[in-house]
Amino acid sequence: FKEPKKYKHAGGAVKLKNMIQSYFYLLRDKKFIIF
After folding, report:
1. What is the dihedral of CA 6, 7, 11, 13, to 10 degrees?
2. What highest taxon heads this organism's lineage (predicted)?
3. 3, 9, 12, 13: CA torsion to nearest 10
4. Where along the chain do its domains lie?
């Protein structure tokens, strides 16, 4: 079973968005800890 390319691409975009979001949350938390 192969996923349609469009579906795969959308899933990748969502994954990337979540990764960036969690990365920014991490940075924000570190800022609070440092300062």
Report:
1. 20
2. Bacteria
3. -150
4. 1-35
